[in-house]
Design goal:
The structure is a single chain. By secondary structure, the chain is α+β, with helices and mostly antiparallel strands. About 25% of the residues lie in helices and about 35% in strands. The protein has helices spanning about 1-10, 70-85, 135-150, 190-200, and strands at about 15-20, 25, 30-35, 40-50, 90-95, 100-110, 120-130, 155, 160-165, 170-175, 180-185, 205-210, 210-215, 215-220, 225. A 6-stranded antiparallel beta sheet has the order 8-9-10-11-5-12, sandwiched between helices. Strands 1-7-6-2 form a 4-stranded mixed beta sheet. It has a 3-stranded antiparallel beta sheet with strand order 13-14-15, with helices on one face. The longest helix has 15 residues, at about 135-150. It is elongated.
């Protein structure tokens, strides 16, 4: 819980303001989970603060909510290209992914359990998105899309979760599914530049070569790529 609150503070997720009678407040709760590795062994314990988005009202504290997600067909096509062309394949994970998007609406939340307040009567005015908000997926994807646009990536028309950058050596492909990112292509130098830029813009975790994605176990050898 302390690590999560520290991440929220460092990300400037909210500011504390006086609670006015006209403010419509939403609540929050802590959700605890156990993260496992692809082999089923323990990875880490995780506590996540989740806003009670079920209390939001359309037109008051949320509007657009849609965000695209990667299609499994595109994942298989990319893996086929990686196997046939012998491309490198990296996987990255965005820590606290939904905390990176900025909110266009005014959302006020009751102080979560565990948060120390300098005085009574204060509430959290959210500046960035938080898990559980109805507009979270849209806010996060908009932020990620804008970042890739500045890095000269173009959004695919066939799958909006796929981004492509053409280079002298062919190009770089990036596929995003919520907080999971696949990066591949025949240009390792641009891939390294992309990874460095993503680390600079977001709290990223480099997972190395792809081993597990969307419920698929990925095994790579000199004979090709095997999915389980």
């Amino acid at each position: 819980m302390d690590d999560e609150l520290d991440a929220l503070r460092s990300n400037d997720t909210w500011e504390l303001v006086e609670c006015l009678t006209s403010i419509k407040l939403i609540g929050s709760k802590w959700v605890y989970s156990v993260k496992l590795k692809s082999d089923g062994s323990l990875d880490r314990y995780k506590a996540r603060l989740v806003a009670l988005g079920n209390c939001q009202e359309y037109g008051i504290n949320y509007e657009e909510t849609f965000a695209p997600v990667a299609k499994l067909t595109i994942v298989r096509i990319l893996l086929a290209l990686v196997a046939s062309q012998d491309w490198i394949l990296h996987q990255m994970d965005v820590k606290n992914d939904f905390l990176h998007g900025y909110l266009n609406e005014e959302v006020y939340m009751k102080p979560p359990p565990g948060l120390s307040l300098p005085k009574l009567g204060l509430v959290c005015k959210l500046k960035r998105s938080l898990y559980g908000l109805k507009q979270d997926p849209r806010a996060w994807f908009d932020k990620f899309h804008n970042t890739l646009h500045h890095l000269l990536f173009v959004q695919s028309k066939s799958d909006p979760s796929l981004f492509i950058r053409k280079t002298a050596k062919g190009g770089v492909f990036l596929l995003v599914y919520v907080d999971n990112i696949l990066i591949t292509g025949p240009d390792p130098e641009i891939i390294k530049e992309l990874q460095a830029a993503l680390h600079h813009s977001f709290h990223m975790k480099d997972l190395g070569s792809l081993t597990y994605f969307l419920g698929l176990e990925v095994h790579r050898s000199n004979k090709g790529i095997f999915l389980n």
